[in-house]
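Duplicate of earlier report; Prephenate dehydratase input re-posted below.
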Amino acid sequence: MNITNVGFLGPNATFTAQAVEALFPGKENKPYRTIPACIDAVENGEVDVAVVPIENTIEGTVNLTIDYLIHVKQLKIIGEVIIPIKQHLMVHPNNINNWEDVQGIYSHPHAIAQCHKFLYNHFPNIQPIETSSTGAAAKFVSEHPEQNHAAIANSFAAKEYGLTIVKHDIHDFDNNHTRFVVLHKEMLDLDLVKENTGDKTTLMVTLPSDQAGALHQVLSVFAWRKLNLSKIESRPMKTGLGNYLFLIDIEQRMDEILIPSAIAELEALGSGVTVLGSYPYYHI
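Output:
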């Protein structure tokens, strides 16, 4: 597939921008303000693919990404990249000497949650202000030097927006990574020069009925075929309390026998099955 432009959660120097650069160096990148806007851009043909966050080691699934894909725009996952996340506290150079007295701290909700201990210990009286991305937070602080505000973002954002990092690595846990998925309107092969770490197939499964053992039946379909599941997660179907669908990651690409036969058995049991993607993943 010849990819010429990539949509991502902007502005520049977000973690998503890092993910784009890791997979698509030198391509034309188009920042969007929100995750739904990125997904819509693919659907509308504004960009070839979009790169959006889907899961973080500390904060778990990015529900907005999952729910928008399932309930609004059913694009296909054609790739995944995992990058390390390092959060830093940064201020405008005008406020370096009094950064400990900042009046506001801005960042994306996940970044704020990832730095809970630091914020609690150093700024217990400040309620952090949520922004659409870490890059947006850095951009805001850079544009308001007269206000003693800080942003939580990465080192690329500090460089991009002329901010000074006053505290490095303020995230609560060192093993902090985020998964980003590459989305396209069709299930195509992502042909990159970079060697992939492994392969996955992601299914969306609805249970046949609300009965004892229904989920066990679904899981046994994969177990006896020795299909390794790296993740299973429930999400509300939004049709009523207690109604859930399941997202299942299988640690291999779609083949000609095992996964198709598993899908056929699930459907024979009365489950609904949608293939969200079969794709390579990369660990940076």
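The longest strand covers residues 272-283.

Merging into the original ticket.
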